[in-house]
Amino acid sequence: MPSLGGLLKKRRTKDSQTLASELPVSSEPNHSTVPDSHSHDSSEGASMQPAGSSQEPPQQSNNAASINNLINTPANASEAHGSAHHSNAGQAHAQQAHQQQPLKQERTTKGKYSQEDFLLQRTLGTGSFGRVHLVQSKHNHRFYAMKVLKKAQVVKMKQIEHTNDERRMLNRVRHPFLVTLWGTWQDSRNLYMVMDFVEGGELFSLLRKSQRFPNPVAKFYAAEVTLALEYLHSHQIIYRDLKPENLLLDRHGHLKITDFGFAKDVPDITWTLCGTPDYLAPEVVSSKGYNKSVDWWSLGILIFEMLCGFTPFWDSGSPVKIYENILRGKVKYPPYLHDDAVDLLSRLITADLTKRLGNLHGGPEDVKNHAWFAEVTWDRLARKDIDAPYIPPIRGGQGDASQYDKYPEETEHYGIEGEDAYGHLFPDF
Length: 429
Ligand SMILES: Nc1ncnc2c1ncn2[C@@H]1O[C@H](COP(=O)(O)OP(=O)(O)OP(=O)(O)O)[C@@H](O)[C@H]1O
Hints:
The protein is α+β, with helices and mostly antiparallel strands and 429 residues long.
């Protein structure tokens, strides 16, 4: 059993460096809120629509409940609600619905927004190349998340292509479980991306506070991720950075995948070594060509981590040790795991690409039809018509960032004009 000291507190970065400014996840108990079923995403318009800007009043809190109590409460789990039912007809519908979901028309945003359009607020998170701020539009007064990437840092870390890909991929996708990009621009030092503000915080924080999720809770999040992967793969996009840090919760408790920094348009195979060590598939580690199959491997790691509280190949030493464990491929399944879960995990976390679920002839349907997902009504899930197991306690209305850890703020001013050595490398921003 690995020692979980570091893993419990630290977010894992793409390059495995720990963030100097990172604060440990708060150990304060969180508070439950009244679950709101039948929630609908208000951020899916083609124009600048409310992103995290619901006009609902703050939700009621229940000061007695810790997150762990809350998500272990059967009444809050989708299975215990009886709201997730197996339905083959539903699966067929969901499949159709996904194939019908169009890629977004490329939005022409260049020159449309600038720093002047937004009031800068607190930092929501930091990453390898910059940080993400909460911002408020001066025009519609709604709240957004603004990702700021330092050009010099992006260039130094040889991430020019990935950064351009991130913008391009995010601009193309439109799905209830993927974050929406509204605009990008650049100044002499930084690149800026304005997205939905997803108010409920990271699944990472919820998981660390809860230690591990009960089977139905893990199943709910895994099912939403499965639909998002199905959508991306049907548009030839591999995501390549699945992990709880990149899964955000909206105010109703549904997932939104953020951080498309490694997403790639890949009709067949690619070779780049990227991702987060714990989550890398063996074909990535061993520098073989790979394809969408890597996301199904990562889904297995994600489900394992949600059910167990740690990743199967984790090592406190170094990424190299983790890579060795991945190549050795030995997974110890704790006895408390449900048999169906172990069966699914062993079919996802397999180095044999001819056996890995999601990568076979049946594609994502093989994953969706697995016994572990038997209760899931996929078409209802795709409509967000299944109650989420945990409703983030967002009491402050719009712009409430209380679900995010606090970070030391950036002192550098944004919007500075001047010499720009790298601007030509990012022509789409
Ligand atoms: N749309 C959003 N709404 C709210 N918070 C967000 C949003 N996007 C990102 N964040 C917060 O900012 C953090 C960093 O964002 P992101 O992962 O995109 O940056 P990154 O530089 O690519 O990070 P990394 O190098 O760790 O992958 C996220 O983990 C999350 O806490």
